[in-house]
Specification:
Blueprint (H helix, E strand, L loop, with lengths): L1 H11 L4 H8 L3 H10 L1 H16 L1 H10 L18 H9 L5 H19 L2 E4 L1 H15 L6 H7 L6 E5 L26 H8 L3 E6 L11 E2 L3 E2 L1 E2 L2 E5 L5 H8 L5 E6 L5 H6 L3 E4 L19 H4 L1 E6 L2 H11 L17 E4 L14 H18 L2 E2 L11 H9 L20 H10 L6 H11 L10 H19 L3 E6 L15 H7 L1 H6 L3 E8 L5 E7 L5 H15 L6 H4 L2
Organism: Popillia japonica
Protein name: Amidase
Family: Belongs to the amidase family.
């Protein structure tokens, strides 16, 4: 098959074949050119697609037998249904004690976590003591409530943290057996900002191994499950945050996003998630890290929340730049809408579910008809051609972490064959997903020739310039966050490429993007769309998210659905 494709690619570039193909099938020649230039990567995608379809009957049978949902306990305390914005106000005004709020959330987490497996390590006792100090402070006669509202807008409010974001004295193993037992010596920059704003961290939550997967399955912490169907993944890599917040066990949290790791679990768990403009939030204290400055152009820390208004509050706290005015009013009639229901054909990725396509259309029609936003006649539709470029640019980062290398013992060598043998006869050191990532993606550069890095950089720059010219300071792009709802964890192999195209594109471009929940598909799983704007127009994304929440209900509790 490979030889046949190579021959076709060569012959297609020679006359008279090129002329004929150009006249008859305009896109075919460009496809053949891509085959010729990056045959290895395309063949890998071809194998992924073949494997997906050949295993479909077996997966259908397996999921039919092992598909019993385990409903999570319902949340009954009204305190669990306030937004962080409203809860902070109630605490400041002494209508409710922070200690009661903290204990309520701790009780909720304990009742639900045995179903989800989303907690790595907690600090409940310390959190209760900190809440007591908040209540003492607010009861002092000379306390300036107005000043507290400005300087500590999250005072007394519980927050959960993805394990990769350092919380002093808590686990920082990031799902790696090599890092097991590692503790953070100090808070990371984002956590420090949350504490300064008065938030009280409760725990660190699960992540995929070294944050390199869209599923939270690790050899250290096990599998994190989805509250809407415990047989499905909670997403990744911020899957623990997604599961806790979506289940009503947490209110707000932070995760990191290198290729969709905030937005994908946010969608899978029916909540909001925001990937900020590149470098708008400091990544100091995040693990994995990388000495190459390019790394922070792509990775960012962002908030996850059940209620859209809390994203804005969180971003005001987390931002290290004043380039975004989160209090600015937006004239909705001046907003231009760009949209795409699908990215087109990208070998190895999934086609977009019909319910998600419909969700995009609903959003566009609602914003146009109700808020008089203008639907642009221009199209931004090159996403099916940049998947290779996204991978190439992410892998162009120097000294990126290697899953098959123990950071504590860099001289010790681990191999793919060795790990495969250990997985059969004992317990491996590294998950199969990360073995694959190391061998074929990181070490093998995604089977994309390194000589093409400059070409791919130019391609992404062209897309970036085109989008900036289209979106400017008053445009939004609406498209699927992910092509499918949450899947079974064992299906991860044919979903990884989805992240590179649907979400990873905007990491490489550095654009802000907000995931908005849009109800459920026919199987009862959450779906969503993402709102994208030009760099430093984060406020526009968040304003639109709040509008859509009012119309399409936003977060809808899983226990109201799974218990029916």
């Amino acid at each position: 098959m490979t030889i046949l494709l190579a021959v076709c690619c060569y012959r297609s570039s020679q006359p008279p074949y090129a002329t004929f193909l150009h006249k008859q099938i305009p896109t075919f020649q460009s496809i053949l050119k891509r085959f010729r230039m990056e045959l290895g990567y395309l063949f890998l995608r071809f194998l992924v697609t073949c494997f997906k379809w050949t295993t479909f009957p077996f997966r259908k049978i397996y999921f039919g037998i092992f598909n019993t949902r385990v409903p999570i306990p319902a949340a009954e305390d009204p305190l669990l249904f306030y937004s962080a914005t409203k809860l902070a106000k109630l605490i400041r005004e002494k209508q409710i004690k922070s200690e009661i709020v903290i204990k309520t959330y701790i009780g909720r987490i304990k009742s639900v976590n045995k179903f989800l497996n989303a907690v790595v390590e907690d600090r409940y006792l310390e959190a209760i003591e900190e809440a007591k100090q908040v209540d003492i402070l607010l009861n002092q006669p000379n306390t300036n409530i107005e000043k507290i509202a400005i300087e500590k807008p999250l005072l007394g409010v519980p927050v959960t943290i993805k394990e990769s974001c350092a919380v002093k004295d808590l686990s920082l193993s990031v799902g790696s057996t090599f890092m097991k037992g590692t503790k953070a010596r100090e808070d990371g920059a984002a956590v420090s900002k949350l504490r300064s704003a008065g938030a009280i961290p409760l725990l660190v939550s699960t992540t995929s191994e070294l944050c390199l997967s869209v599923c939270c399955n690790t050899l250290v912490n096990g599998t994190t499950r989805n509250p809407y169907n415990t047989n499905r993944t909670s997403g990744g890599s911020s899957g623990g945050e997604g599961a806790l917040i979506g289940s009503g066990s947490s209110l707000i949290g932070i995760g990191s996003d290198l290729g969709g790791s905030v937005r994908i679990p946010a969608m899978f768990n029916c909540i909001f998630g925001h990937k900020p403009t590149a470098r708008l939030v400091s990544c100091d204290g995040h693990w994995p890290t990388c000495p190459d400055p390019k790394f922070e152009n792509y990775i960012t820390i962002g908030p996850l929340a059940r209620y859209a208004e809390d994203l804005k509050l969180m971003m005001k706290v987390l931002s290290v730049s004043n380039k975004v005015n989160f209090d600015a009013e937006v004239n909705l009639k001046n907003v231009n809408i760009f949209f795409t229901e699908d990215i087109g054909f990208y070998l190895g990725s999934n086609s977009v579910q019909s319910e998600i396509k419909e969700a995009v259309r609903k959003v566009v029609n609602y914003l146009h008809e109700t808020h008089e936003m203008r639907i642009s006649n221009k199209r931004i539709d090159k996403f099916d051609t940049v998947g290779d470029s996204v991978i190439s640019q992410l892998l162009a980062v120097d000294d990126i972490i290697r899953p098959l290398q123990d950071p504590n013992n860099p001289d010790v060598k681990y191999t793919m064959i060795g790990q495969l043998i250990k997985s059969v006869f004992s317990k491996p050191d590294i998950t199969p997903t990360n073995v694959f990532a190391d061998v074929f993606i990181i070490r093998g550069n995604g089977l994309i020739p390194k000589s093409h890095t400059v070409k791919h950089h130019s391609k992404m720059e062209q897309l970036r310039n085109k989008m900036i010219n289209c979106l400017q300071d008053n445009g939004i792009l609406i498209m699927p966050t992910f092509p499918t709802s949450a899947f079974h964890s064992i299906e991860i192999g044919w979903h990884m490429l989805n992240a590179s195209v649907f979400t990873g594109t905007f990491n490489v471009l550095g654009f802000p993007s907000t995931q908005v929940p849009m109800g459920f598909d026919k199987k009862g799983m959450p779906i969503g769309v993402q709102i994208i704007s030009a760099p430093y127009q984060d406020n526009l994304c968040l304003v639109v998210a709040e509008i859509l929440e009012k119309r399409f209900k936003g977060w809808q509790p899983p226990f109201e659905r799974t218990n029916k």
